[in-house]
Specification:
Pfam families: DJ-1_PfpI, HTH_18. The protein has about 325 residues and is an alpha/beta fold. Helices cover about 40% and strands about 10% of the residues. The longest helix is centred in the C-terminal third of the chain and has 19 residues. The radius of gyration is 21 Å and the shape is globular. The chain starts with a strand and ends in a 9-residue tail after the last helix.
Length: about 325
């Protein structure tokens, strides 16, 4: 059975963002080409929807699809004056969201995080939204830990993304969680997008342009990615960039949205996941090839970030062999 995704279109929806879930999920397929997801778009009452642009759209479904959905996506809608003033959802929308099952995954794209927060679904958790409205989200919903520096936040059942193309990043992340890096990378290639973008939305926030704009950490990041198996230190990275450690760390965080060592650990973990999915290398060899050094360190990172051992991850995410006709 395919994974059922229901995408909610409300008045004021951004058309580009509305199309992201179907575009990404419909490109996730088994080796024989069978779709892994089925995506439907719905509106409240099945009514036509006025978009953020100069046209309306007609959908074929209403909120009854919520009762059978495995994942629900709230397409981008900027928060209205009433929501910003009261922090409350309109009654019809609140009633619709109540129809979502307790195990159903719920995703917001961009500023639709305000809708999840107003429904109480983000209380006590971490979330993000477009960087221009992160302060407003934190002010209006003080029980939500708002992170303005990331492309998306995965809290398990509830996920939120930053603005625009971050919705693509989040949908590919879900494909990666459900079916592994190989399937997600193939879907990304079909969509002609990067399977994984470095850093967070901090790199897109408007900052004063530094005087030495020709200096960047991008060459050093590529240098590191080409040498993940080596014992690279922060000092090594700064030396390669011809900067002091302090200057390199500050510039790296400004460009990427995280510290150099955190980024390095994420890169090593991503490489280890890919090797587990696409090769039959032992855990020890993968630990060495990805720069963790030994299996103990690799297992620790997998348990901390993924909640699985490397072998359990391999069993869950290895791509099946294509079935050949006899």
């Amino acid at each position: 059975m395919t994974h059922r995704v229901a995408v909610l279109a409300l008045d004021g929806v951004l058309p580009l963002d509305l199309g992201i879930p179907a575009r990404v999920f419909n490109e996730a397929r088994k080796p024989d080409g069978t779709p892994l997801y089925s995506v439907v778009t719905f509106s409240l009452g099945g009514r036509p929807v006025r978009t953020h642009e100069d046209y309306r759209i007609v959908v074929d479904h209403d909120e009854s699809v919520l009762e059978s959905a495995d994942t629900v996506v709230l397409a981008t809608q900027e928060p209205g004056e009433d929501l910003l003033a009261t922090g409350a959802l309109p009654g019809e929308l609140a009633a619709a969201l109540d129809r979502i099952g307790p195990q159903t995954r719920i995703v917001s794209l961009c500023t639709s995080a305000f809708l999840l927060a107003a429904a109480g679904l983000l209380d006590g958790g971490r979330a993000t939204t477009h960087w221009t409205l992160c302060d407003e989200l934190a002010r209006l919903f003080p029980d939500v830990e708002v992170d303005p520096d990331v492309l998306f936040v995965d809290n398990g059942r509830i996920l939120t993304s930053a603005g625009g193309a971050a919705g693509i990043d989040l949908c590919l992340h879900l494909v990666r969680l459900d079916h592994g890096a190989a399937v997600a990378s193939a879907a990304a290639r079909r969509c002609v997008v990067a399977p994984w973008r470095e850093g967070g939305q901090a790199q897109f926030i408007e900052h004063p342009v530094p005087q030495d704009t020709d200096r960047s950490t991008s060459a050093t990041r590529q240098w590191v990615l080409d040498r993940l198996a080596e014992p690279i230190t922060l000092e090594d990275m700064a030396r390669h960039a011809h900067m002091s450690v302090r200057t390199f760390t500050r510039r790296f965080r400004s460009e990427v949205g995280s510290s150099p060592l955190k980024w390095l650990a994420q890169g090593r973990l991503a490489h280890a996941r890919l090797l587990l999915e696409s090769t039959d290398l032992t855990v020890a060899r993968i630990a060495t090839a990805s720069g963790f050094g030994d299996p103990v360190a690799l297992r620790k990172h997998f348990h901390t970030h993924l909640g699985l051992s490397p072998l359990a991850y391999r069993r869950a995410h290895s791509a099946p062999e294509p079935v050949t006709a006899q």
